[in-house]
Amino acid sequence: MIGKKAVAPVIAMIMLTLVAVSASLVTYSWLIAHPLPKETASQKLMINLKIVEAAYSPQEKELRVFVLNSGGVDTQVDSLYIYDLNGDLLAAYEIEEGEIESGELKEFSLTNIELDISENYILKIVTPQGFVTTLLSALTSLPPPSKIHHAVIAYYCSIDYKYPRFNEFNGSHWIGEIKLPNSGGRVYGVRVATCPIKSRADEVIVVTASSDRYLDAYVWNGTAWSQYPIPGKIHYYAYRYRAFDIAYESKSGRALLVYWKYNSSFSLGYDKELRYRIWNGTHWTEDKPLDLIPGKTRPRYTRIFFISLASSPKSNQIALICYAYYRTSWWWYSYGVFAAIWDGSSWIVKKIGSRVTTYGRECVAVAYESLSGEALFVWGYSTRVYYTTYSSTGWGSTSSFNIGGAPQWVTLKPNPTSDEVMLTCIDSGYDLNTVLWNGDSWGSPTEHDQRVEVYSTRCADFDWEPDGKKGLLVWGDNNVDALTYCVWDGSNWGSKETYPGLTTDQRWVQVKRNYAVENVTIMIVTIDDGKDLVVTAWNGSAMTIQEELTSYSDYRYCERFDLEFKHFGEYP
User: Among 61, 136, 191, 388, which one is most buried in terms of CB atoms within 10 A?
Assistant: First the structure.
């Protein structure tokens, strides 16, 4: 375990137990058993607590008190007393789990309490050592501090190339690079997932695929990292073409890791091509088989490309898409696009297509509609984009539309406030197109560029603003060092713009949205022709904070980084 703080000061939410309200007999009895302790001079010198502010919500009947420990020692908050200006005790609260570390700011939340926001109150926080801090204030005099959603990123660095790197953005700057434990080989594929449940809000999982042909999972629990090497080798193709992915179940908070486990057998047999494991918050389960390709195959000749998972916002359902070629006889290859639905306990698998445009590029994608919870699958073949859906009524029919060129890279990004989904496509003619799915049908393709930087890597991506009203498309234009972008306003595309900065000709572009409208609504990650990994922030109207995290990345073979926002905000 690596004991390193991700963010300081740490801010926690502590719930208080209501002992008594009003100067009643219950309050009197409690005070007899818990009198205000006497403090000593030596304790006073060591402990320095301050009530920073207090805020009250009459609608929710919730009082929030923010206490800062600016002393040199850790301490414990024992109780809270509320008085009126005449000195009469109105309420007394015993505090459970009231530990406060030196330099820490903690929020104490009291529920089911009735106060008058037009009145002033005297608040006293007391420690077992006898320290008392007092605030005389109107409850609405200061708003509570705003929470900020942090972004986290894991990536490859060619210096000490076996060690994945990790960094965290706190709303204003990147905190600093952390070197994760040795993966055993040169790091290639990287995936990041953040926990969607509040009780494990700090949890982050990083999964890497390395040249030693093993996966490693790294779990951050808010205070320390733990490394979990995944037993069983993967194929050479698996680490270069990301035949693995990880996603959380939205409601349970369990994480699902799916990967292609290599089988070297030449013989025809019933090979369970994929394996999956579940992280339950404390440990990983043993691997279980997922039979992707029906019937007998010769496992040594199986090749699986670009496993992609998407989590349903409505349930614990997770959708999977990938493509493969394989031998079902001694000599002849078969091809297929495969989809699967995880319902929290078992899988439903279907071969949804026979071919893709290219083997070795991610021309498949899956996403869930945010309101309906319907899964949308797409894949490219010839000059068309094929698609199908899965809902509570089962699989939809398969159809297609012409995109104008042979799709090489596609992404799907769901609008967080509607059933719209935006498809981004780079084709073999270097064309960049987007198409909007409205929940029922596709609109007409919009061509944004006839000559992007490359199509051997994905140099374009899109995502929505957190409120779903607008979206941002970013790409690398041919021989243009600046970032190129345009804005979707909900009905139309804006003009093509550029943002000169730290990055040059972009080879990889990843665009990810925040979960809340804040100073940073979207993050853009790029790797350029100089192998610089640069992250640029978008504030809803302009590019703002930009920072180079390393100049020793690599754009070859695969996307060797991944960024995600945390689901819950943190105090600055």
Answer: 191
Strand ranges in 35-155 using DSSP code E only, listed in sequence order: 49-57, 62-69, 75-76, 79-83, 89-94, 99-100, 105-111, 120-126, 132-138, 151-155
Q: Which of 386, 362, 390, 356 is nearest to 376 (CA)?
A: 390
Does the domain at residues 151-565 carry the CATH identifier 3.20.20.30?
A: no
Numbered ranges of CATH 2.60.40.10 in the chain: 2-138
Residues sharing a CB contact under 8 Å with residue 430, sequence separation 6 or more, in sequence order: 449, 450, 451, 452, 454, 455, 478
Which pLDDT tens digit goes with each residue over 39-97? Answer: 444 444 456 788 888 888 776 778 888 888 877 788 888 888 898 888 889 888 888 77
2-138: CATH class: mainly beta
* Of the candidates 31, 55, 61, the residue with the CA atom closest to the CA atom of residue 126: 31
Dihedral (CA of 38, 41, 43, 48) sign: positive
pLDDT, one tens digit per residue, over 275-312 is: 999 999 999 999 999 999 988 899 999 999 999 999 99
Q: What is the value of pTM for the model shown?
A: 0.79
